[in-house]
Write a structure and sequence with these properties.
Helix content is 64%, strand content 10%. With 603 residues, the chain is of the alpha/beta class. It has a six-stranded mixed beta sheet with strand order 6-7-8-3-9-10, with helices on both faces. Strand 9 and strand 10 form a beta hairpin. The longest helix has 53 residues.
C-alpha cells in the first residue's frame, strides 16, 4: 500500500496549500524584498511604454515638423532609457527569484529527508522507498518551479494587470468599464475548470511515484528477477505503470491546454470587442489616435498578464499537489519519540548491561489481531549470554525490535540497567546497543567508512582493530585498494560472509554494553564461522549478549537458552538441560544434529 493511499488529504484550495511553504520562505524575507523591488521597477517600466507611444502619436506626428522631430527623438530616447531600466530590473528579478527557488527547494528536500529518516519501521511497512524518492525529486522540482519562476511571474503579471487596468481607466473609463464586466463573466468558468486541472495534476504525480516505487523495488532485487528469468515480465509491468502515468499526464495536459485556450479566447474576445468600440470612438472624434493606441497597448498588457496568470495558475495547481504530498510527509509524527525530559542511563560497568522485560505483549500495527509477543517476562543479568531459539514467527526478531524501540509494546515494560527504555532518549538507548542484523547493509563507500559507521569519530587504527576482531582484516587487505576499496552499492563486491563480518566489525567498533546478534554467523562458511565465533566470544566478554540463532551449534555455549513459541517463553535452560527435557528444543537439536551427521556420512 502506498503512502498516497494511506495518508489523508484535506480538500484545500491551491493557495491555502501553498501557504504551507511559508515556514521555508520566511528566513529569506530580505531576498524577497529585493526581488519585489526589482519586480516593481520592471512593472513600472513596462507600464510607461504605452504612454510614451501616445506622446509620440499625438505630439510627434503633429503638423509642426520641427517640433515633431524633437518629440520623436525625445520619445525614442526615453524609450531606450526605459528599456535599460527594464533590462536591469528584469535581470535582478530573475537572479533573486532563481536563487530563492534553488534555496527553498534545497531546504524542503533537507526537511523532508531529515523527517522521513526519523520515522519508525511502521511507516516503512506501508510506504515504498521509490515513492519517497519521487517526492524528494519530482515534487520538490515542481516546488522549485513555483518558487523560482511561478511566484515571480504571478506577482509580475498581477502588477501589470492592476497597473494596466488603472491606466485603461485613465485613458477611457467607459471602455474600461465594459472590459471589466466582460472579464468578470469569463473568469468564472476559468476558475472552475482550474480545479479539475489541480485534481489531475495530483493524480499524475501519484502515478509517477507508483512507477518510481516499482522500479526501485525491482532494481534492488535484480539477482532474484534474473534467476527466475522475469526480465520481460518486469519490463512489461513497468511499461504498463509508465503508460498509466503517461495516460494520466495526458489527461492533465489536455485539461491545461483547454484551460489556456479558454482563457485566451474569452479574454481576447472581450478585449477585441472593446477595441472595436474604441475604433468607432476615434472615427467619431470621441478620443484621439494616440489615446486609442495607448488603450490598445494597455489592453494588450492586461490581456497578456491574464493569459500568463492562467499559465501560472496551471503550474500552481501542479505545485499545490506536490506541496500537499510533501507537507503530508512532514506532518507525519512517528509514534516512537524521545521523551521531553529523558532520563540518563547509570554509569557503565565492565560487566555490561542488565535487561528486564515485564509482562510484555506486542502486536505489529499492520497485524493487530496477531500477537507477536504475549505476556513475556525475562531477566538478563549483566555480562550474561542469552540465546533465543524458536521457529520462524516465534517472536525472536520482534523482541529485538522492542529492545531497540523501533516499536513500543502495547502492554508491559522493558528496562535497561533499571531504567524504562521509554524514558530514555532514543539516541542514548540505541548508542548503548550494538546490532548485527541477519541481512547486512553495506553502504556505497569504502571498507574503512563502512566499519566506521559503528562509531563516526573512531580513528583508522580503531577501525582496523575492530576488523581484526571480526576476522575481516585479511580479506579487506586483499581488496585492490585495501581499506580504501569501494565495496559497491549494497556491497555487491563482497560475498555474504564478508558482508557479515563487516557488520560484526561495525558493532564491535561501537563497543556497546548490550550486543544483539541476529543470526550473526548465518551467511558464513565453516572456516569463516570458526574465525567469527572466536571473535564474537572475545567480544562478548564484559558485555551482555542476546543471540538469535536457528543453527543450534552457535548457541550451545550460551549461559541460557530461551525457547520461544508463538510469542511465549516455553523453555529455559542450558543446551544439555533442554535436550534432557525432551521438548521443543530437544526436537530441534535432534533434527539439526542428526541431519548434519547423516549428511556427513553420505558425503
Amino acid at each position: 500500500m502506498t503512502t498516497s493511499k494511506t495518508l489523508t488529504h484535506a480538500n484545500k484550495t491551491s493557495l491555502a496549500t501553498l501557504k504551507g511553504l511559508l515556514p521555508f520562505l520566511r528566513p529569506y524575507q530580505k531576498q524577497f524584498l529585493l526581488a519585489g523591488l526589482a519586480l516593481l521597477v520592471a512593472a513600472c517600466a513596462t507600464l510607461a511604454i504605452p504612454y510614451a507611444f501616445r506622446q509620440m502619436i499625438d505630439l510627434g506626428f503633429s503638423q509642426n515638423s520641427s517640433n515633431s522631430i524633437k518629440h520623436v527623438n525625445a520619445t525614442f530616447l526615453a524609450l531606450f532609457g526605459v528599456a535599460t531600466v527594464l533590462g536591469i530590473a528584469t535581470a535582478a528579478r530573475f537572479y533573486m527569484v532563481s536563487w530563492l527557488g534553488e534555496r527553498v527547494t534545497a531546504d524542503v528536500r533537507n526537511a523532508v529527508y531529515a523527517h522521513v529518516i526519523t520515522q519508525s519501521p511502521e511507516f516503512f511497512e506501508t510506504t515504498q522507498t521509490g515513492e519517497v524518492l519521487s517526492r524528494l525529486t519530482t515534487d520538490t522540482t515542481l516546488i522549485q518551479s513555483v518558487v523560482g519562476t511561478s511566484i515571480s511571474m504571478a506577482l509580475r503579471n498581477s502588477l501589470l494587470f492592476l497597473g494596466g487596468l488603472v491606466m485603461l481607466f485613465v485613458t477611457s473609463a467607459k471602455l474600461s468599464a465594459i472590459i471589466i464586466v466582460l472579464l468578470a463573466a469569463v473568469v468564472f468558468p476559468i476558475v472552475l475548470f482550474g480545479r479539475r486541472v489541480r485534481t489531475l495534476s495530483r493524480d499524475s504525480q501519484d502515478r509517477v511515484a507508483d512507477a518510481s516505487a516499482m522500479a526501485g523495488e525491482i532494481l534492488n532485487a535484480m539477482p532474484t528477477v534474473q534467476a527466475f528469468t522475469h526480465e520481460k515480465i518486469e519490463a512489461t509491468r513497468f511499461s504498463s505503470s509508465v503508460e498509466n502515468a503517461f495516460a494520466t499526464a495526458m489527461r492533465r495536459i489536455r485539461a491545461r491546454s483547454l484551460l489556456t485556450m479558454m482563457a485566451i479566447l474569452l479574454v481576447f474576445g472581450a478585449i477585441v470587442f472593446v477595441l472595436w468600440l474604441g475604433a468607432h470612438a476615434v472615427m467619431q472624434g470621441g478620443m484621439s489616435g494616440g489615446e486609442l493606441g495607448q488603450f490598445i497597448l494597455y489592453a494588450s498588457i492586461v490581456a497578456g498578464s491574464i493569459g500568463a496568470l492562467s499559465e501560472v495558475l496551471g503550474e500552481a495547481q501542479r505545485a499545490a499537489g506536490a506541496t500537499e504530498r510533501l507537507l503530508d510527509l512532514i506532518a507525519l509524527e512517528s509514534p516512537i519519540q524521545s521523551p521531553a525530559t529523558p532520563h540518563k542511563l547509570p554509569a557503565r560497568t565492565a560487566n555490561g548491561a542488565t535487561l528486564s522485560l515485564r509482562d510484555v505483549t506486542f502486536h505489529y500495527p499492520s497485524r493487530p489481531a496477531t500477537p507477536a509477543l504475549q505476556s513475556l517476562s525475562l531477566d538478563v543479568r549483566a555480562g550474561e549470554t542469552i540465546a533465543l531459539v524458536g521457529a520462524s514467527g516465534a517472536g525472536k526478531t520482534s523482541l529485538f525490535q522492542l529492545i531497540l524501540r523501533f516499536y513500543d509494546a502495547q502492554n508491559g515494560q522493558i528496562q535497561l540497567d533499571g531504567v524504562d527504555i521509554r524514558s530514555l532518549g532514543l539516541e542514548e538507548l540505541r548508542n548503548a546497543i550494538g546490532v548485527v542484523p541477519q541481512e547486512t547493509i553495506i553502504f556505497s563507500a569504502n571498507a574503512l567508512e563502512n566499519i566506521r559507521y559503528g562509531r563516526a569519530n573512531a580513528t583508522d587504527d580503531e577501525v582496523i582493530n575492530a576488523a581484526k576482531m571480526a576476522a575481516a582484516h585479511e580479506f579487506i587487505e586483499r581488496l585492490p585498494e585495501g581499506y580504501q576499496s569501494f565495496l559497491g552499492e549494497r556491497g555487491v563486491r563482497l560475498s555474504g560472509g564478508q558482508r557479515q563480518r563487516i557488520a560484526i566489525a561495525r558493532a564491535l567498533l561501537k563497543n556497546p554494553p548490550l550486543l544483539l546478534l541476529d543470526e550473526a554467523t548465518s551467511a558464513l562458511d565453516a572456516e569463516s564461522e570458526r574465525l567469527v565465533q572466536g571473535a564474537l566470544e572475545l567480544a562478548m566478554q564484559g558485555r551482555t549478549t542476546i543471540i538469535i540463532a536457528h543453527r543450534l551449534a552457535t548457541v550451545q555455549r550460551a549461559n541460557r537458552i530461551i525457547v520461544l513459541d508463538h510469542g511465549k517463553i516455553v523453555e529455559t535452560g542450558t543446551h544439555n538441560e533442554l535436550v534432557a527435557q525432551g521438548g521443543i528444543y530437544a526436537n530441534l537439536a535432534e533434527l539439526q544434529f542428526n541431519t548434519h551427521d547423516s549428511s556427513l556420512r553420505s558425503s
